[in-house]
Automatic annotation (TrEMBL):
Pfam family, one: ApbE
InterPro entries: ApbE (IPR024932), ApbE-like_sf (IPR003374)
Positions of Mg(2+) binding: A149, D261, T265
Protein name in UniProt: FAD:protein FMN transferase
Cofactor(s), names only, from the UniProt record: Mg(2+); Mn(2+)
Swiss-Prot/TrEMBL keywords: FAD, Flavoprotein, Magnesium, Metal-binding, Transferase
Keyword Flavoprotein belongs to the record: yes
Family of the protein in this entry: Belongs to the ApbE family.
Cofactor, free-text remark: Magnesium. Can also use manganese.
An MF annotation (GO) of this entry: metal ion binding
Length: 308
């Protein structure tokens, strides 16, 4: 069995695809198929192209329902389910709030309470009406849906499904560290993912063996702000309209990239105690948290290794 790699930038992230197969023709075809599928999903879900389904839906916020493709409708249903099990910590309508708290810029100033209150009126998954015949209505004017916290995971799951349908017994889709893998490397060894040390992102703190699982990390060590002696992460709690207390990183392992992607964000918002309690109730889901003081917390039944 051979393996071939491809590096490309899609969905605003660096993707690495590793395809396996009997020969180079097969692996090259799978890489091409994977890139085409990610591009298709990007064109469907992007908010940066006014012709995309999501851009058109956002443009009708506060207005009549919009008919969306079945694929998008099903994704919205799953997002709604994750929002419910995380008690609103995961919310695809939080983008309006996030724009107020953009810590990337040196000139960031804390938003006024009136601006936060206004944004909160347009924030909540409960204002998304999923109607019959694949119709979706954003009930409040100014609402915006953004799949940034789940889209890469969805794309990875879709590529994996296509490769499995074509007979691939192993493979890897890695979107800037959010990774899904199954089977084994050509030499028979398991795929492994390194969890970066938040204080030295180029160094690996832990190694996780990955077999038919997906790993996603939400890291805050590069984007944070301090106010009145409190350090906040770049993640916003959509239920409160406020940045969450600083956690250096949250890594989630689950059967699907989409779920891992969404839960990594949600657990950052929920905090270590509540987040780990939730994870311990979900089948085949695990997490590792490095808090603001470098304390490592982990859910039950997860195996991590200090060495490769």
């Amino acid at each position: 069995m051979l393996s071939s790699k491809l590096h490309t930038r899609l969905m605003g992230s660096d993707f690495e695809l590793i395809a396996t197969g009997a020969d180079e023709v097969i692996t090259a075809g799978r890489l091409e198929q994977g890139v085409a599928e990610i591009k298709r999903i990007e064109s469907l879900l992007t908010v940066f192209n006014e012709t995309s389904v999501i851009a058109q839906l956002n443009a009708q916020a506060g207005g009549p329902p919009v008919t969306v493709p079945a694929e998008v409708y099903q994704l919205l249903l799953r997002c709604n389910k994750i929002s419910m099990i995380t008690q609103g910590a995961f919310d695809i309508t939080a983008g309006v709030l996030k724009k107020l708290f953009n810590f990337k810029y040196d000139h960031f100033t804390w938003p006024e309470k009136a601006a936060i209150d206004q944004a909160m009126l347009a924030t909540s998954f409960e204002h998304i009406a999923l109607l019959d015949n694949h119709q979706v209505q954003l009930k409040r004017a100014g609402m915006r849906i953004d799949f940034g916290a789940i889209g890469k995971g969805y794309a990875a799951d879709r590529v994996k499904a296509l490769w499995l349908a074509a007979g691939a017994t192993s493979g890897v889709i890695n979107a800037s560290g959010d990774l899904t893998a199954w089977g084994h490397q050509p030499d028979g060894s398991p795929w492994k993912i390194g969890i970066a040390d938040p204080d030295a992102p180029t160094q690996i703190r832990f190694w996780l063996p990955v077999n038919n699982a997906s790993v996603a990390t939400s890291g805050n060590y590069e984007q944070y702000v301090e106010r009145n002696g409190v350090r906040y992460s770049h993640n916003i709690d959509p239920r409160k309209g406020w940045p969450v207390p600083f956690i250096k990183s949250v890594t989630v392992v689950s059967p699907g990239a989409e779920l891992s992607d969404a839960l990594a964000t949600a657990i950052t918002v929920m905090g270590p105690a509540v987040g780990i309690h939730l994870v311990n109730q979900l089948p085949d889901v695990h997490c590792i948290i490095i808090d603001g003081k470098n304390k490592v917390l982990q859910s039950d039944n997860i195996q991590i290794h200090a060495k490769a």
